[in-house]
Amino acid sequence: MLPEVASGMLNPRDITTPIREFCTSAKFYQATVFSVDLQQRLVTITRKFDGKNHALEYDYLVLAVGSDNNFYGNKPIEENSFPIKTVEDAIELRNQTLSMMEIAAQTGSVELQQKFLTFTVVGAGFAGVEIIGEINHFVRKSVKQAYPTINENNINMILISSKNEILPELNYKLGESARSYLKKMGVRIISNVKAIDAGESHVELSDGEIIPCTTLIWTGGVTTNSMIKSLICEHDKGGKVLVDKFLRLKDHPEVFALGDCAAILDTDTGKFYPPTAQHALRESTVVAQNIKKSLESDSNLKEFSYQSKGMMATIGNKAGVASLMGLSITGVLAWVIWRTYYLSHLPTFESKVKIGIGWAINSFFGTDLTLIGETKTKYLHKITIDDDTPSLKDQLVGDL
């Protein structure tokens, strides 16, 4: 749903759920993991509010840190592109898109207007196709709605694929259906090339073409989280931790891993399970059940086994492609199925209602062109917190 946040279709708050709502019986830290010592069973965190490190002991540990963007060591591209992995990324991309339309509206130069209104997406997998489809619809609709000084012919939407096809995770027919739709909507698709360099207002491709653009969006790959790579345990060739059929680290039965950071072997196919959201959801259930069994000294742990129910992607306004139970579905029906599936898997009833209302509102009203400004964070470096001091709640209970 991040592409829809980037286009303003959804409110950032509506697609997120506060962790504390799920941690009412747990102690929650808003912090960054600095290191994990598997031998000593210690997790060192860097606290958000003061930047100080704090060590936590554990009996059981779950690794579910996801993955990082992979720029393949290309610093110019990393510094001049917008990734789309977090809500913050989506907000930044939305602000960039709105800012470029505002600047373009103030110039009478065709060349400059084209440069400001060229949006280039690198990577033609699910993330790339969904973001180009959403941004394309958002920009074109916004220009018609509120920017009379912008010539719509100066809008350029470009999707870069290092392969011959797009959406390689789906079958060829669905990929070609998505390609045909995007082209019809004004998206230029460049195949069999890579982005090799980028600057403030351009991106250079491996075939020598230089595209003038001020907005480069990166969905060109992910890599294993650096903290996961640093763990002293067995990894696959990509740096993911190897786990057994119960999703435990080998030689560390007290440590479980799931999602993008775990290499989980499918014993039926001899291949590793793909790092998709539906697999991660199922993995999380198995991990929770196995920790509960371990705490109860129940040795009958649950094995992980899962068969994909299918894969889907939205490719623009009321359009999508889907492969479900061997069936290929395109168009409005695929789009409706996508929305229904994701709405049903949101964690709370409140979020389901908010997103449902958001979708309904956007179907009847114009595009939201609100620019969210930058925020300021104040760090408290001179305040010391004694971690051994009981919480106020515990102190009050003790006084009763």
From TrEMBL:
Domain (FAD/NAD(P)-binding) ranges: 22-283
Residue intervals passing through the bilayer: 319-338
PANTHER family (alphabetical): EXTERNAL NADH-UBIQUINONE OXIDOREDUCTASE 1, MITOCHONDRIAL-RELATED (PTHR43706:SF47), NADH DEHYDROGENASE (PTHR43706)
EC number(s) from the headed UniProt entry: 1.6.5.9
Residue span, External alternative NADH-ubiquinone oxidoreductase-like C-terminal domain: 309-367
Signal peptide start and end residues: none
Family annotation (InterPro entries): FAD/NAD-bd_sf (IPR036188), FAD/NAD-binding_dom (IPR023753), NDH-2 (IPR045024), NDH2-like_C (IPR054585)
Keyword Flavoprotein attributed: yes
Reaction it catalyzes: a quinone + NADH + H(+) = a quinol + NAD(+)
Gene3D superfamilies xrefs: 3.50.50.100
Keywords: FAD, Flavoprotein, Membrane, NAD, Oxidoreductase, Transit peptide, Transmembrane, Transmembrane helix
Family recorded in the similarity comment: Belongs to the NADH dehydrogenase family.
Name of the protein described by the UniProt record: NADH:ubiquinone reductase (non-electrogenic)
